[in-house]
Amino acid sequence: MIVFTDKQSYGKAVWEAFIKHLGYMDENEIILLVDNNSFPDYELPSNVRKIAYRNRFEAIKIILSYKKRRLFFLNVVDLFRFQFLKYIGRKLFVWHQGIIPEESYSRHNSTLRYYILSVIEFLALRNADGAVLVSSEAKSFLERKYKFLSLKKCIVVPCLSDFSLTNISEPRDNKFVYIGGISPWQCFEDVIASYLYIKNVIENATLSIYTLDKEKAKITVEKFTCNYKELGIEIASLTSRNEVEAALNNHRYGFLLRKNIPLNNVASPIKFGEYLSCGVAPIITDAVIDYAKIVREDGIGIISSKDKNTLVDDIKLFDKSPQEIYQSYRNRFNSQQIRKDYKWLLN
User: Where are the beta strands (DSSP E) in the chain?
Assistant: First the structure.
């Protein structure tokens, strides 16, 4: 199989996620086409052979020089540019990580860009022989939006966590945690408001805020209360993944609040998997549709309610152990099943 990448694929978060996908594919050999001018010095799996190209014409020549029929793209825009290869016997697959037109509109507020990207997204997905999506809701959303699109051959591969449950003995009761940024879409102010209401009822509650934006977080918290330390709020930065894992293993509940918009409806936030894999019960809004469904079906967290009394009551009644939460993660986020799904998709 040949995987085409370009400079938009080389961000650290995207690349680390995609390296896992290469492992799930179980291919004997993968030809990775990389932009010679932009590709960082990333370590690659042993079955991946890197070939650099200088421009798209050279990339096409390389693709045509191989007998490999399957081509994998990391976004719909690249598949759209290369979709003519479908008509000379190539099979095209795409990792569709979100809903690109909606993401673009949220950043640029351009209706023209939105409709152009919608046309590209529709044509690329229609011509794809298979797609990898991050959530079941993404499939439903795309098929609702594009009436003549049917994603019959697609798989859902959520973001998996590298963390694991290490603390099964030390008490975690009423220890709340928030990990992430302070951007409006992360609903940080809602986290603070929810916690302060909880603190009024559950006196021994504490909240640990771990963020790289410490000063901004402090300013935001002080909008609500100046004596936040006396109210059990700690603001700190964690510099390594090991520190994040250790911190999560010392907490009972983790906030994951989002606004009810399509971008969040189809999302697969890695924070959810990280919480579960460390035995932390997520406090989540209905906006993250796939994950709110898991919380309801497995009973391993709290659906955040606008009625704060209901939220507090649900916390008081919650009785799942960290081990049960971790087991739900193991059952739901199974790498062996993902390998089977990839085998079905690519064959």
Answer: 2-4, 30-35, 48-53, 70-73, 91-96, 130-133, 154-156, 175-179, 206-210, 233-236, 253-256, 281-284, 302-303
CA–CA dist 7, 14 (Å, integer): 11
- Residue by residue, pLDDT tens for the chain (347 residues) are 999 999 888 888 888 889 889 989 988 899 999 998 888 888 888 899 999 999 999 999 999 999 889 999 999 999 999 999 999 999 999 999 889 999 999 999 999 999 999 999 999 999 999 999 999 999 999 999 999 999 999 999 998 999 999 998 888 999 999 999 998 889 999 999 999 999 999 999 999 999 999 999 999 999 999 999 999 999 999 989 999 999 999 999 999 999 999 999 999 999 999 999 999 999 999 999 999 999 999 999 999 988 899 999 999 999 999 999 999 999 999 999 999 999 999 98
* Alpha carbons 109 and 66: distance in angstroms, whole number: 42
Distance, CA of 87 to CA of 79 (rounded, Å): 13
pTM > 0.90: yes or no: yes
Spatial contact of 221 and 227, defined as CB atoms under 8 Å apart: no
Tokens of 36: 């010679």
Nearest to 30 by CA among 62, 72, 58: 72
Q: How far apart are the first and last CA of the chain?
A: 11
Backbone φ and ψ for 268, nearest 5 degrees, come out as -135, 70
Task: State whether residue 157 is helix, strand or coil.
Answer: coil
